[in-house]
Design brief:
The chain has 409 residues and is mainly α. The protein contains 17 helices and no strands.
C-alpha cells in the first residue's frame, strides 16, 4: 500500500472518565514489575481484554508506533492509550499516574542506598543486585534478537548488514559509550542509503543532508548546546537527563553506557558501585528502566535533582505522543523511517549486549563475579525473571556483608 492510499477510519474510542484513567493507570504503575513486557501485557489486559476500550488492531498499531520513537516505549504506549481514551488531558494524567508510583519507590530506596553512611547490609544488597546488571543487559538483548532477525528479511545482503549493525553497536557500547548514539544514527543512515540504490552509485551522497537541521544552521549555532555539559551543576544534570529522554532507542539499556560515563566519569556524581545499584533499582521497582536517571539526579543534587532529571527525561515522551499521535498512522507507513530503524534497531540490540562489558568491569569485588555467574545461569539458560534474579542477588549481597565480605564502594 502506498503512502497516498487511504486508510480505513479508526472507530472512535470510548470516552473514559479521568478518575478511571487515574485509578487504572496508577494501578499499573504500582504493580508493573518486570519492565516493558509486563507493562504492555497489563495495558493490553486493561484496554483490550477486560474493558474493550481499544480494539486489538488499535493496540497493536500503538505498540508499533511507539517502537518507532526514541524514549521508553512502554511509557509512551501508556500515554498513547490514555490519549485515545480522553485526549491530551487524559494522556498527561495517565502518563503521570503510570510513572509516579515507580518514581516514588525508587527515590525512597535511593535515599537509603545513597545515604552518607548506609547500614552495611544495605550496601551489600546494593552490591549484590548491582552485580547482576551485566547479565540483565545480555538477557534483554537476547530476548530482542529473534524478532529483529526476522524483520531483517530473507535477503542475504540485508542479513549481512544486520550482522554488521549488531556488531557495530556492541563494539561502540563496549568502547566508546559516550558516542554510542552517533553509531546508532550512522547505522540507520547507512540502511536508508542502501535502500535508495541510486543508479550512479554513491548512496550516501544521495541522502538529503542539507535538509537535516544542522544543514541550515549558521556556523557556531550549535555552540550553546555543546557548552551545556561543561556548565556543571543542575545545567549538566538537565543535559544528561534530556539526552536520556531523546536518545534511548531500543530501550533504556541503550543509554546506560552514556549515562554511566556522565554520572561516574565526567561529573563524578556516583561511584561505579552506586551506578550499578541505581540500574538494579530501576529493574527492581515498577516503571521503566529510564527511572534510573532519577537516582543519578538524586546523587547529583538531592530530591530537586531527582525531580529535574525525571521531568526532563520523560518530557520528550509526552511531547512525542501529544504532538505526533494524530499522525502515527502516517509515521508507520513512512518507508524512510522503517529503513532507518532497520539499521539502528540491530545496532541498539548490539549496544544493549555490549553495555554488559563496561558494567561488568565496574564490579569491585571477586564475590560479585560469582553472583554474576549465578545470575547469568538464572537469566539465560534457565530463563527466569529479572526481578527474582535481582532480589536473590540482593539477599546474597546482604548476607555476604553481614558475614564480612568486602563491600566498599
Amino acid at each position: 500500500m502506498s503512502e497516498e492510499d487511504p486508510q480505513p477510519p479508526e472507530p472512535a474510542p470510548q470516552r473514559v472518565a479521568l478518575a478511571t484513567i487515574a485509578r487504572e493507570w496508577g494501578r499499573i504503575g504500582c504493580v508493573g514489575f518486570g519492565g516493558p513486557p509486563a507493562h504492555i501485557a497489563l495495558l493490553r489486559r486493561l484496554c483490550v481484554d477486560d474493558r474493550g476500550w481499544l480494539s486489538e488492531r488499535e493496540f497493536e498499531d500503538g505498540i508499533a508506533a511507539c517502537n518507532l520513537l526514541p524514549g521508553p516505549a512502554s511509557t509512551q504506549l501508556a500515554i498513547l492509550c490514555a490519549w485515545r481514551l480522553r485526549g491530551p488531558g487524559g494522556a498527561v494524567l495517565g502518563g503521570l499516574c503510570f510513572i509516579v508510583p515507580g518514581l516514588v519507590v525508587i527515590l525512597s530506596l535511593s535515599a537509603v542506598f545513597l545515604a552518607a553512611r548506609p547500614p552495611g547490609w544495605i550496601e551489600g544488597a546494593g552490591a549484590g543486585a548491582g552485580a547482576v546488571v551485566p547479565a540483565v543487559a545480555v538477557a534483554a538483548a537476547v530476548a530482542l534478537l529473534p524478532g529483529s532477525w526476522r524483520r531483517s528479511g530473507p535477503h542475504r545482503t540485508a542479513r549481512i548488514r544486520w550482522c554488521g549493525y549488531l556488531l557495530a553497536g556492541g563494539l561502540a557500547a563496549a568502547t566508546v559509550g559516550p558516542w554510542l548514539v552517533l553509531v546508532l544514527a550512522a547505522c540507520g543512515l547507512i540502511e536508508v542509503a542502501a535502500g535508495l540504490r541510486p543508479p550512479t552509485g554513491g548512496a550516501l551522497a544521495a541522502l538529503p543532508w542539507g535538509a537535516l537541521p544542522w544543514g541550515t544552521l549558521p556556523s557556531g549555532a550549535l555552540a550553546p548546546a555543546a557548552a551545556l555539559p561543561a556548565a556543571g551543576g543542575l545545567v549538566a544534570l538537565a543535559w544528561v537527563a534530556f539526552k536520556v529522554g531523546v536518545l534511548s532507542y531500543g530501550g533504556g539499556f541503550v543509554i546506560i553506557p552514556l549515562m554511566q560515563h556522565d554520572a561516574v566519569v565526567a561529573y563524578r556524581w556516583m561511584t561505579d558501585s552506586q551506578f550499578l545499584g541505581a540500574v538494579a533499582l530501576g529493574q527492581l521497582t515498577p516503571g521503566p528502566v529510564v527511572l534510573t536517571v532519577a537516582v543519578v539526579g538524586y546523587a547529583a543534587a538531592g530530591m530537586p535533582g531527582a525531580a529535574l532529571a525525571a521531568a526532563l527525561s520523560f518530557a520528550p515522551s509526552f511531547g512525542f505522543v501529544l504532538l505526533g499521535a494524530p499522525r502515527f498512522r502516517q509515521l508507520r507507513r513512512n518507508t524512510t523511517i522503517h529503513a532507518f530503524l532497520a539499521g539502528a534497531g540491530p545496532a541498539a540490540i548490539g549496544a544493549i549486549a555490549g553495555a554488559a562489558i563496561p558494567l561488568g568491569l565496574a564490579l569491585n569485588h571477586l564475590w560479585q563475579a560469582g553472583v554474576l555467574a549465578l545470575a547469568s545461569v538464572w537469566l539465560l539458560p534457565a530463563r527466569r525473571s529479572v526481578v527474582s534474579g535481582l532480589a536473590g542477588a540482593a539477599v546474597l549481597g546482604a548476607v555476604g556483608a553481614l558475614a564480612g565480605l568486602p563491600i566498599s564502594r
